[in-house]
């Protein structure tokens, strides 16, 4: 079977207006701007308005991506939303988005792979197009992490923000587009990063709320070690599968969780810092939204040129990791 070349033909992003700075957090928990900046690189993050939910953020990013791709919502065959903060358990956020966009022909589902989700979504959707099953797909990473963050816990509340990034996928010139995917999971790390409340094991109850199980839990130190190791390995594997060398990379777009983790990846790949997109100081960690948000911003700023080799790499809860090489 002849597979078609598939690539990203349009990107978009959306962040809520409200800014929560480190100084704001100093008034909420025992922390300091200095601690947050030196340990994480984060300066501020965006917080969704009360009336906004994940599908609203996704909608704005998707509209921008459709416009950039030059197609209408009705031309979409598939919508994949990757998120750990869906509007509700079901229907999926993808179905809510499908209706709002008026993407009447599109199949729609959510994909859960935490911060690795966007690249998992790209791998998934691109296969449908490569096979010729579909022509156009929309992949959105969108999160309202502020809704699952405990703003009395200084270990986690400084790290996360809200936002959305989107990409329209379609057929591209032969040899262009996605060159490789490297996806992985290690469920033995399930306790390191989790939200237990409200699922079938711990259905929502007064007790789960009292125990704060509706908030994200993280073992930061262990996740840090895992992230440094896995970012490098996933990047190496994706490059190898694509037949590329480290020197071929024009732009690295890593998951935005901590500048120290990003710098470890830059060092391992032997890259100058200007070849890496870092918007973490403005938005903090937006989980599944972080990579598409960084990609859309890089495109907007003219940092992505035709023919460039991009390396996307992410890691997150599960534990999971993901990487992809793209010839733009
Ligand atoms: C969370 C993280 C920033 C903490 O940095 P760290 O250098 O590992 O810090 P430690 O966990 O060693 O904590 C050091 C101390 O700072 C304290 N501390 C934690 N949060 C703090 C805050 N916001 N302000 C001030 N002090 C804080 C801790 O209580 C600890 O104090 P103790 O030694 O008295 O117990 C870091 O581990 C990290 O980024 N981990 C990965 C997180 C991540 O990427 N998550 C998303 C995955 S998708």
UniProtKB/TrEMBL annotation:
The active site is at 115, 255, 285. Residues 109-187 form the Beta-ketoacyl-[acyl-carrier-protein] synthase III N-terminal domain. Its main location: cytoplasm. The keyword Lipid metabolism applies. It is found in: Cytoplasm. Keywords: Acyltransferase, Cytoplasm, Fatty acid biosynthesis, Fatty acid metabolism, Lipid biosynthesis, Lipid metabolism, Multifunctional enzyme, Transferase. This is Beta-ketoacyl-[acyl-carrier-protein] synthase III.
């Amino acid at each position: 079977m002849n597979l078609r070349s598939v690539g990203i033909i349009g990107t978009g992003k959306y962040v809520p207006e409200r800014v929560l700075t480190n100084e704001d957090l100093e008034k909420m928990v025992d922390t300091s701007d200095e601690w947050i900046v030196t340990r994480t690189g984060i300066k501020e993050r965006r917080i969704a308005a009360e009336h906004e939910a994940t599908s609203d953020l996704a909608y704005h990013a998707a509209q921008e991506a459709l416009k950039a791709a030059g197609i209408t919502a009705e031309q979409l065959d598939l919508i994949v939303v990757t998120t750990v903060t869906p509007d509700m358990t079901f229907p999926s956020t993808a179905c809510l988005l499908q209706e709002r966009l008026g993407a009447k022909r599109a199949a729609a589902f959510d994909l859960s792979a935490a911060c690795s989700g966007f690249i998992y979504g790209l791998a998934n959707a691109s296969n449908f197009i490569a096979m010729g099953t579909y022509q156009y797909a929309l992949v959105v990473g969108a999160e309202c992490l502020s809704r699952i963050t405990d703003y009395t816990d200084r270990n986690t509340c400084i790290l996360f923000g809200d936002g959305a990034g989107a990409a329209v996928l379609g057929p591209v010139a032969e040899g262009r587009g996605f060159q490789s995917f490297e996806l992985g999971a290690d469920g033995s790390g399930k306790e390191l990063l989790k939200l237990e409340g409200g699922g079938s094991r711990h259905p929502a109850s007064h007790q789960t709320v009292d125990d704060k199980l509706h908030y994200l839990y993280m073992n930061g130190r262990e996740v840090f070690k895992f992230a440094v190791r896995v970012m490098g390995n996933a990047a190496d594997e994706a490059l190898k599968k694509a037949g590329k060398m480290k020197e071929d990379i024009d732009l690295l777009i890593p998951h935005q969780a901590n500048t120290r983790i990003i710098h470890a990846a830059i060092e391992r790949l032997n890259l100058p810092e200007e070849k890496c997109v870092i918007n973490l100081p403005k938005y903090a960690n937006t989980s599944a939204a972080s990579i598409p948000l960084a990609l859309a911003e890089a495109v907007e700023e003219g940092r992505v040129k035709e023919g460039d080799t991009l390396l996307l790499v992410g890691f997150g809860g599960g534990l999971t990791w993901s990487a992809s090489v793209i010839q733009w």
